[in-house]
Recover the amino acids of this structure.
């Protein structure tokens, strides 16, 4: 069987990759990915062949990786974060049946919900929900239902893809929905450029978050009713009893 690794690179820096991810890249002949993600690893693997596709060419990218593997070469398809969290492993699994000679191996990575939480403090110590605000593949009406359900259930909420040029008001719209059930003083956080140059972490209230501009390099965390600020960090208590 010819191998296709689907590799989560983590937040972006080499020190954020798992050992399994590094081994998969080292053992591959060809590395395939979106241009931005290829640029994160190109210098570290100068002896590899790189194949890229632009944004929104995901199906073409997966077929390119599978076809290259079917030709007898060991291939790694790279994604940021974890390949199974808004990544490429699902599409690879769906199309794998068209390439019977290829073995698919998903290599997990550190998703932004985890790496972002780490630089903000400890916001995920209790139950949480992860919701993408991108409506390219999911209707806004469904996103709205998920936000309302998570807010009513008092989950900590992590928001992926919180804003873009075409969706500049989506974060404020999301905050308005959460504010139906949560206090304006709810502790929130923004993690930006996680693991890369210009890394930033900011803690603020839900009311402040509503009027804050963010970009696609940001991951947003909305705390639950118990989340608090401890030494400038965002902390959701687990509920341990201590003296």
């Amino acid at each position: 069987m010819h191998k296709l690794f689907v590799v989560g690179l983590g937040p972006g820096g080499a020190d954020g990759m798992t050992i399994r991810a590094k081994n998969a890249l080292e053992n591959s002949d060809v590395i395939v990915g979106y241009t931005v993600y290829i640029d994160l690893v190109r210098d570290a693997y100068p002896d590899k062949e790189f194949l890229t596709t632009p944004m929104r060419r995901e199906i073409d990218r997966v077929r390119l990786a599978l076809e290259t593997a079917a030709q007898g070469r060991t291939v790694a398809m790279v994604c940021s974060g974890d390949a199974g969290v808004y990544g490429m492993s699902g599409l690879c699994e769906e199309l794998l049946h068209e390439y019977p000679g290829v073995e698919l191996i998903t290599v997990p990575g550190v998703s932004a919900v985890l790496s972002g939480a780490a630089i903000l403090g400890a916001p995920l110590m209790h139950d949480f929900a992860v919701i993408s605000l991108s409506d390219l593949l999911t209707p806004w009406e469904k996103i709205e239902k998920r936000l309302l359900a998570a807010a009513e259930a008092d989950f900590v909420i992590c928001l992926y893809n919180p804003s873009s040029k075409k969706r500049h008001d989506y974060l404020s719209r999301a905050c308005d929905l959460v504010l139906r059930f949560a206090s304006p003083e709810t502790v929130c956080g923004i993690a930006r450029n996680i693991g890369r140059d210009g890394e930033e972490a900011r803690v603020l209230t839900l009311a402040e978050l509503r009027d804050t501009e963010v970009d696609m390099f940001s991951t947003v965390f909305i705390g639950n009713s118990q989340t608090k600020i401890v030494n400038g960090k965002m902390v959701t208590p687990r509920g341990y009893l201590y003296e």
Summary: The first strand starts at residue 2 and ends at 8. The mean pLDDT is 94. The helical segments are 19-26, 35-41, 58-70, 89-95, 112-120, 140-152, 170-178, 206-210.
